[in-house]
Amino acid sequence: MSTAPTTYLLTGVAPLGGDPVDLLLRDGVIAGLGAPGTLDGSADDGSVTVVDGTGLVALPGLVDLHTHLREPGREDAETVESGTRAAAAGGFTAVHAMANTTPVADTAGVVEQVWRLGRAAGWVDVHPVGAVSVGLEGERLAELGAMADSVAQVSVFSDDGKCVHDPILMRRALEYVKAFDGVVAQHAQEPRLTEGAQMNEGVVSAEIGLAGWPAVAEESIIARDVLLAEHVGSRLHVCHLSTARSVEIVRWAKSRGVDVTAEVTPHHLVLTDELARDYDPSFKVNPPLRTQADVDAVRQGLEDGTIDIVATDHAPHTREDKDCEWGAAAFGMTGLETALSVVQQTMVDTGRMTWADVARVLSTAPARIGRIDAGSAPRAAPSRWASPRTSCWWTRARPGWWTARPRPPRAPTPRSGATSSRAGSSRRSCAVARPCWTAPPSTGLPARRPRGERVTTDEPPHACRRRDLVGPGARPAAPGRRRLPQPAPSRRARGARAAGRPGPAVGRDGRPVPRDLRVDDAGG
Questions:
Q1: Does a structural domain hold residue 523?
Q2: N or C terminus of the chain with fewer C-beta within 10 Å?
Q3: CB distance 368 to 399 below 8 Å
Q4: pLDDT (tens digit, 9 = 90+) per residue, 286-327?
Q5: Alpha helices in 291-392 (DSSP H)
Q6: By residue range, what is the domain housing residue 335?
Q7: 129: domain CATH number?
Q8: Residue 456 banded pLDDT, cuts 50, 70, 90
Q9: Catalytic residue of the set 160, 313, 357, 468
C-alpha cells in the first residue's frame, strides 16, 4: 500500500508577503528555508513532493477563536468532522468549538467528548470552549475549574448565543477564571433590549418593517464588563464586536490598562444592513449587520489594534432553518472557508494591513488569547479514587488555588514484612480545588490551614475541606452541613448547673424554648 508523501518542497513562496523563498516541509514542520533553487528537493525514495508556489503567500496556520461545530446534538447541521474539514480548507489549523451544543458543554465530560471527536477527525486541533453558566441559563456558574483541569484543558469560557446578563454572575466568572489564567468571552447583548429583534435598528429596519436591534444593547454590556474586568483584574474577551461605539469603548478600556481583547467577524467587515431589504435570511446574523459607518469603524479598529483578532463565528444551520421567511429563520452564517479572503479584500487590498498583520489577527493573537501552546502535550485523565477514608495533604497547585494530593502508600514494615493496614486500603483525595480565602477577623473563624500541613482523617472527603470552618478541637461537621460555633451558656444556666438544679430548656441554637413547647416527663 502506497503512503502519502510527508515531505514537501514549496518553491517561490513569499512568507508573510516578503521575498520569495523555498520552503522544505517535513512531517508538517518547516525543515529548511532558503533562496529559490538552493534547497534540494530530490530523494531516493521519491517521497518529496515539489509544489510550485510562485506568487503565493505563506502564512502560519490560522486559529479561529469562535466556531460552532454543533456536535453533540445538532449533527444534522454540522459535525466535528465536517466542520474541521471546512476549517482546513480555509487555512485554519486550530478552532475553538463553542459551548452551545446539546447537551451544553458545561461539564468536563462534554468538553472531553468534543476534544476527542476533534482528535479522531484529525483535520485540525479542536479546543472546546466551556460554558460560563449551567445550561447557558445565566443562573449558576458551570464547572469552570473541572473543565480547566480536564483533558481538554479549557481556557476560554463563553455562553455565546446568550449573554451573561447578570452582573454578579459575570463578576464571579471573571474572579474564578483568574485563578488559572482563563478568559471569559462575552456575547454582548442585553436581552431585554433585543426581545423580538430581527435586524439592526435604523433607517432600513423602519422602512422594511422589521423589529430593530439597537446598538446600545451591545455597547451597554461591553461598558459594564470592561469595568468589571478592571475591578476584578481579570481577562475579558468581547465576541463579534459590531458597532462604532463598541470600538470606542474598547479603545477607552485599553487606554486605562484593562486586560480586554475583542474580535470582529468577516461578515461585519464587509456586509451592511442594506442587504436585509431583500429579506434574504442568509444575512440574518447575531449581532445583526450594521450600517456602513459601523463597518468603517470596525475596519479602523482592526487596523489600529483596538480590535485584536478576526474570528469567524462560523454558525452552520440546516436548509430548513435558513430557507424560510426572515422571521422564522435562524441567526448565523458560515465563515471558515471565506474568512481569509474577506480579510484580504477588506484590509490587505485596501492598504490598511500587511500580510504580517493578517498573520497577527488570524493566527498569533488568537492563539495567545486562547492560550494555545503548540508544544504542549495533552494531559492524562485524572485518576479516580474511591474510599470513605481520606489521607491527604494540601499543596499549592497554582497561584491562588489549593488542591488535595493523595498520600503515597506506606512501605512494608520490617517487623512483619506486611503492608500497613492503612496502606492496604484504597484512598481518595478530596479532589477539590478551591480559591485561597482567609476568614475576616470579624467572623471569628480560624484562618486557613498553612500550606503543606498534612491532614489525616476518617471523615468522608468533603468533610476534610470543611475542617478549617469548624475550629481546632471541635468535632467535624457532617458532609454537606456547616457546623457553627455554639453560643456560651447564659448566666442563669451556669448558676443552675452549679447548684445542681435543672437549667432552662434551650434549643440547639442555645436560645430558651418557650414553656408551652417543652416536653415534660408526664406528657411524654
A1: no
A2: N
A3: no
A4: 999 999 999 999 999 999 999 999 999 999 999 999 999 999
A5: 292-304, 319-322, 339-343, 355-359, 365-369
A6: 62-369
A7: 3.20.20.140
A8: very low
A9: 313
The total number of structural domains in the chain stands at 3
* 94-123 average pLDDT score: 96
Judge if 198 and 343 occupy the same domain.
yes
Same domain, 363 and 480: no
Do 47 and 72 reside in the same domain of the chain? Answer: no
Same-domain status, 245 and 314: yes
Please give the Cα distance from 392 to 214 (Å, whole number).
Answer: 55
Strand order of the β-sheet with 156-157 is: 156-157, 183-186, 236-238, 260-264, 309-310
The Cα 4–Cα 16 span in angstroms is 28
- Cα separation, 345 vs 328, in Å, equals 32
Do 273 and 354 belong to one domain? yes
State the chain's mean pLDDT as an integer: 79
Asked if residue 509 belongs to a domain, the reply is: no
Q: Give the position of cell 454537606.
A: 480
> Residue 333: what are its φ and ψ, rounded to 5°?
-150, 160
Q: How far apart are CA 359 and CA 65, in angstroms?
A: 14
**Is residue 154 assigned to a domain?**
yes
Query: Is 296 a catalytic site residue?
Result: no
Residue 127 near residue 99, CB atoms below 8 Å: no
The Cα 333–Cα 311 span in angstroms is 13
Q: Which residues contact 478 (CB under 8 A, 6 or more apart)?
A: 463
pLDDT in tens, 318-370: 999 999 999 999 999 999 999 999 999 999 999 999 999 999 999 999 999 99
Name the one residue in this structure whose C-alpha cell is 461578515.
267
With cut-offs at 50, 70 and 90, classify the pLDDT of residue 420: very low
Q: Are strands 125-128 and 434-435 parallel, antiparallel or unpaired?
A: unpaired
- DSSP class of residue 406 equals E
Q: Which residues contact 480 (CB under 8 A, 6 or more apart)?
A: 462
